[in-house]
Amino acid sequence: MAAEKMKVHAADQPPEEEEEDLIDPMEEIRQNCSEKHCGNFLEKFNECTERVTSRKKTTESCAEELIDLLHCRDHCAHKEIFKHVK
Predict the structure, then answer these.
(1) Taking the CB of residue 17, how many other CB atoms lie within 10 A of it?
(2) Tell me, what's a Pfam family for it (predicted)?
(3) pTM value surpassing 0.90
(4) Are 13 and 69 in contact (CB under 8 A)?
(5) Which candidate, 57, 35, 37, 56, places its Cα nearest to that of 46?
(6) Residues 67, 20: contact at Cβ < 8 Å?
(7) Distance CA 18, CA 32 (A)
(8) How many CA atoms lie within 13 A of 86 on its CB side?
(9) For residue range 21-40, what is the model confidence (pLDDT) as tens digits?
(10) For residue 66, how many C-alpha atoms fall within 13 Å in the half-sphere facing its CB?
C-alpha cells in the first residue's frame, strides 16, 4: 500500500514553467570588442582567411593573425565580463 501512495499522477503536479533561454553576455562583449576595439586585427585576420581559402595548395595558416585578434579581444573584454559575474 505504501507504494501506491508514493505514485504521483501528472494531473496532481503543478504545471511546469517554461524556462527562459539564458543569454551569455560574454558573446556580445567579445563581438563588440572584436569589431570596435580590435578592428585592425579583425581586418588582417579576414584578409588572411580569404587569401588562404582562395588557394588550393598552401602551407600558410592564419594562426598568428588569429592569436593577435583573440589576445586583443580578450584584453578588451575582460573588464566588462567580470561586471556580469554574480
Answers:
(1) 6
(2) UCR_hinge
(3) no
(4) no
(5) 35
(6) no
(7) 30
(8) 2
(9) 888 888 999 999 999 999 99
(10) 5
